[in-house]
Design brief:
It contains four helices and nine strands. With about 180 residues, it is an alpha/beta fold. Strand 3 and strand 4 form a beta hairpin. The protein has a six-stranded mixed β-sheet with strand order 4-3-2-5-6-7, sandwiched between helices. It is globular, with a radius of gyration of 16 Å. The two termini are about 20 Å apart. The structure holds inosinic acid and magnesium ion. The site of magnesium ion has 3 residues, from loops.
């Protein structure tokens, strides 16, 4: 385990097993729809690249990057688009891939933004959810794991751009971020 971690919350084998289950759920709803899968950079990059390789039906992939004004461990919901989508989502089925839903404000902003382009549908697939931290009524259609209200890193998630490459989800020691 990385020395900055208090604990491993979700080991690699549990992540991979859950991804297979999510891929089956996605297949049952999207196999004949060629959805546009939109990953939110940078946190969702690893989750997206693992899950799309488990989908044995046609998909298109795009990315968005946002910057959120807040501290390094809390988002404010005030969001600016740094990289927009390239694919035209008019009349397309869209799946947003997010690493983690905390307050839910970032995701709410993304959904509202995408809906302005008149897609046929927008659903959310998030690896992690912290239900206790929600500040908005957000629906997650495909969820990997519900977790406690702790700051986690690894498998794409960072603290100050570090730890994204860890192959598991770990709980960061408090003294690292306080
Ligand atoms: P929200 O807008 O509060 O839901 O924040 C969502 C974004 O904050 C995520 O996409 C992450 O980038 C970041 N975030 C929230 N909680 C964590 C965490 O525990 N570890 C790492 N990043 C987090
Ligand atoms: Mg993120």
């Amino acid at each position: 385990m990385h020395p900055d971690l208090k604990d491993i919350l979700i080991p690699e084998h549990r992540l991979q097993k859950r991804l297979q289950e999510l891929a089956l759920q996605l297949k049952s709803n999207y196999a004949d729809k060629e959805p546009v899968i939109i990953g939110i950079l940078k946190g969702a990059a690893i989750f997206l690249s693992d899950i799309v390789r488990l989908l044995d039906f046609p998909v298109q992939i795009d990315f968005m990057a946002l910057s959120s004004y807040g501290t390094s461990t809390k988002s404010s919901g005030v969001v600016k688009i740094r990289k927009d989508i390239d694919i035209d989502i008019l009349n397309r089925h869209v799946i947003v891939i997010e690493d983690i839903v905390d307050s839910g404000l970032t995701l709410q902003y993304i959904i509202d933004y995408l809906k302005k382009h008149h897609p046929l549908s927008v659903s959310v697939c998030a690896l992690l959810d912290k239900p206790e931290a929600h500040k908005t009524d957000i629906r997650i259609d495909y969820l990997g794991f519900e977790i406690e209200n702790a700051f986690v890193v690894g498998y794409g998630l960072d603290y100050s751009e570090r730890y994204r490459n860890l192959p598991y989800i770990g709980i960061l020691k408090k003294e690292i971020y306080t």
